[in-house]
Amino acid sequence: MARVAVVTGGTRGIGHAISVALKEAGYIVAANYAGNDEAAAKFKAETGIAVYKWNVASFAECQEGLARIEAELGPIDVVVNNAGITRDGVLHKMSLEQWTQVIDTDLNSLFNMTRPVIEGMRARGFGRIVNISSVNGQKGQMGQSNYSAAKAGLIGFTKAVAQENASKGITVNVVAPGYINTEMVAAVPEPVLQKIIGQIPVGRLGKAEEIARCVAFLASDDAGFITGATISANGGQYLA
Ligand code: NDP
To answer: What are the Ketoreductase domain coordinates in residue numbering (predicted)?
Structure first.
């Protein structure tokens, strides 16, 4: 039986590539998104992957959305916590709203998405959870205290939940991308981008497909001995 995989923020950017990679690897994929119906409809038409709209910052919406996926597609075997936002600003100018939005979307979403599925995974004796961090969570980035905190917190969550569930056939891991050529990075001003590329030893931005292949590997049976780990995919920019 094909395994069921849920990818948050699975309709655009890195998530889009992850959804497609998992489908190609034989999973039944459900791609969650927040509100960009146009992008989701285009993604669905192009890939044939089912889309589910809800806000991962809401526990109630995650419970409801995950229950709907289980009713329609079957028990969830794989969760990829990929949805993320930035609301950049130096701390001395950051609003509480900027802080809270990023912590709710990029960190609290991990509880919201994992808590409703973890008991089922434990009962069935199999599960794969892959959380998408960032090089800026590993090294810290000025102007991103909210994002760096969320993306570093996610690594601690991963290590704790990995230990709790290792004996139940469940692995929990992190992929920490460097700068990847997506809309999020396209929003970075050109001079800043050139400076960033200058700091990447490989000499280019990463590709979403390169992150997707890491995720697909961690989701596979072959990765059963890897848990609590962080795979850095950053072109050598930061060696954690
Ligand atoms: P994009 O902005 O291209 O796509 C974000 C996706 O997440 C969209 O599908 C969006 O839905 C969804 N999303 C955003 N907020 C929510 C929410 N509250 N609930 C549900 N879905 C939501 O992001 P990227 O592909 O660039 O980034 C993906 C992940 O990778 C993020 O966690 C990011 O922090 C991380 N990352 C990205 C890097 C990069 O260089 N791009 C580098 C390092 C890490 P909708 O389409 O409806 O808006």
So the answer is: 3-183
ipTM above 0.90, yes or no: yes
pLDDT one-digit tens code per residue, 175-220: 999 999 988 788 888 998 999 899 999 999 999 999 999 999 999 9
Provide the pLDDT for residue 92.
98
* Minimal-distance CA residue to ligand 1 atom 6: 9
- Choosing from 27, 147, 179, 238, which is the catalytic residue? 147
Helices within 48-134 (DSSP H only): 59-73, 96-103, 109-124
Fold of 4-231: Rossmann fold (3.40.50)
Question: Please, are residues 116 and 62 in contact by the beta-carbon 8 Å criterion?
Answer: yes
Mean pLDDT for 130-134 is 98
Q: Catalytic site residue 147?
A: yes
The best mutation among 104, 151, 182 to test binding of ligand 1, ranked by most ligand atoms within 8 Å of the C-beta, falls on: 182
Rounded alpha-carbon distances, angstroms, from residue 202 to 54, 90, 140, 198, 206: 37, 29, 21, 9, 9
φ, ψ for residue 206, nearest 5 deg:
-80, 165
